[in-house]
Every structure is written in C-alpha cells, then in structure tokens.
C-alpha cells in the first residue's frame, strides 16, 4: 500500500496498482511471473519486485505507506 491508499499487488503479468475504490489504476509489466513486492529505500520510493528468476527495482513517484 502506498501513502495515497493505493494497493500494489503481484500478478501473473507484473504488478497491479489498485485505487482505494478498487479500480485498476495501472500495471507494471514484468517478463516473468511476480511472486512478491515491497517498498524500500530511504523515502520508500523504490519498489522491489521478486519474480520467477529475477529481482527488479524501480523508482516510483510515490512512496510506500509508513507504519503508524
């Protein structure tokens, strides 16, 4: 989940980003099946994606939700 309340989920074709109301906002296509993901980095602007045989890291324009 990011700071805006969007849910980021692994999927067969990559990563899906869902708005709080449930509509699909976008996808990050990955050439392998994605099994897991997490936000990281100093400001939590990086998304780390674990796929079948690789780990990907991309920088986003939003950050992962902080623990209360």
From TrEMBL:
Q: Where is the SMP-30/Gluconolactonase/LRE-like region domain?
A: 1-52
Q: Name one Pfam family in it.
A: SGL
What the entry lists under Gene3D superfamilies is as follows: TolB, C-terminal domain
Q: Report which superkingdom the organism of origin falls in.
A: Bacteria
Recorded hits in SUPFAM superfamilies, A to Z, give: Calcium-dependent phosphotriesterase
| UniProt-recorded Gene Ontology molecular function terms | hydrolase activity
Q: Which UniProt keywords apply?
A: Hydrolase
Name the UniProt record assigns to this protein:
SMP-30/gluconolaconase/LRE-like protein
């Amino acid at each position: 989940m990011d700071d805006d309340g969007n849910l980021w989920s692994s999927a067969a074709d990559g990563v899906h980003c869902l708005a709080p109301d449930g509509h699909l906002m976008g996808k990050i296509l990955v050439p392998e099946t994605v099994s897991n993901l997490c936000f990281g980095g100093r400001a939590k602007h990086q998304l780390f994606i674990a796929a079948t045989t690789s780990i990907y890291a991309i920088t986003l324009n939003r950050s992962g939700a902080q623990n209360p």
